[in-house]
Structures are given as C-alpha cells and as structure tokens.
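[Amino acid chain]
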Amino acid sequence: MRAAAASVDAGGPSQVKGSGVLSTIKNIKSTVPYITFRRYNKALRRLIKLPGYLGTSHVCPICGVGLRAFKPMWKSYGRNIERFGYVHRHREMETFNLAAMTCPKCDATDRERLMAVYLDEAWPSFPPGKAVRLFDFAPAYPLSQKLNRYPSIAYRSADLSRRDVQDHIDLTNIAYADESADIFICSHILEHIPDDRKAMRELRRILHREGFGLMLVPLVIGVDETTEEQGETSVEYRWKHFGMGDHVRQYGRRDFVDRLTQAGFKVEQLGIAHFGAEKFRRHGIAENSILYVVRR
C-alpha cells in the first residue's frame, strides 16, 4: 500500500499500473508450479555441467555423487559485499566455505552437508520402527529430499510465507504442541527475525526432552557480540552491517550461545574435533565449521 501511494504522488496512474504488474509477477513466482519449474530448470542446467565436476576426491553426503570439486560461492555475493562495504568483508566467516559452497549435482550448501553428516550419525540412536517427528523450518530442498528418505520419518516442512511447504508457521508463535518435535532444523532463519529470543523459546517449547535441534546463523570468526538494527532498516544499511539485505542483526558467537542458553537450551558446539578432518575435507566443509546442537 505504501508503494502504491508513493507511485501516485510521483507519477500518476501509469506507475500504479506498473506496480500492479510487478505485484502480479511476484505472485506468480511464489506459486508452487513456478517454484517447481524453476527448481527442475536449474537441476537440468546443473546436470549438463556436472561431468566437468565428477571425480573421486570428494563426495556429497546428501546426493552421494563423487566429485573432483564443489562449486564456489556465486560471484554476485562478493560483488554486493564490496558494493555495500560490509564491515566484516575481510574477516573469515564460520561454516561458510566460499571455495566449495554448493554441490554441482544437488545444489546442497556446505552447511546443509554438515547437518546431513550429523543426522546420518544420529539417526541410528532412534528406536527402530518409531516414528521420528522432524520439523524443518524454511527447508532447503536438497536436504529435505534426503530427510524424506530416512526410515520411519514423520517429516513436516514449515515456513512463514512460502507456498511450497506443508505448514505456515511463525517462529515466534509456533502452532505445534509442546514437546512435539524429536528433531527440528533452524538454519539461517533467526537473523531475519526481530524477536529472535521469543523464537528460541518457542523452539525449546516444541522440542521433546529426548530430542535435539540443529541451529545455524551467520557468524564471523572473532566476533562475540551481536549487532542489532538501531532504527535504520534500509537494504544498504543491512548489507553493510549484517552482510545481507534482509538480515536484522549480525550475531556474535558468544552472544548467540548465550541467547540459546537463556532460552533454556543446552548447547553443544560440534566442529572438526568431533567429525574429523578427513570427513570435513571429503564433504567440502570448511575446517572452522561448527554445528550448534541444542537440547532441553
């Protein structure tokens, strides 16, 4: 509504019509058929280029393909980091492998591959034949495909606005029962939520006392304190201070753990000492990667 009003003031009915067209295009792009078409179109293009990446040095733990290399981070990200002058652009990021970001076959990111490795490790601990209730918030498609292949999985995908999920969920007011999740996944979501502490409390509420959650947010090595928005909400400000145009904070590592602890979680920080250097190398996971596993 504010955008339409601004168009009338600036240029009359023609600009209102233009904004209506953009809105229609946006609505089309959010439909399930369009999302599915885009997904398969990208998969086809990856398949065409895949032979150039095949090899035996690495393997994707999600799709199982053998590779000589993973694909690096897309160039547009680096251009935006420089363009907006991200304050931490010359610092190393945790769990962020710029040189081996995605799988050339299934498009799984390094953080998805890290979670997949842990889930493969943890799954045998669940009683055989027992339905394992897993809630996947803002699901990543490659990982969701793997999760649905686990035996006895009771999988639910959830997001606030996406149409290609099973449940529409606000993380600050989760419409799931107390202790209803054996596992939840919350990866790179909390940096988008103004009241992240409330979301953390809600996640703890739905987690079963014998279950666990996988938590990841963007973190900068050596930064311990969180920087929040202070009234300024422009895309330029967010890129400069938080590293992305739709983030509302830059977490510090110590503060992130403190917030989870204050929400009632016990936090495990699992890195290379837990998984092993060879497993990280083989799956294209950066040596500084940490998976935050939370329990009640």
In short: The chain is about 40% helix and 20% strand. The chain has two domains: 1-30, 75-295.
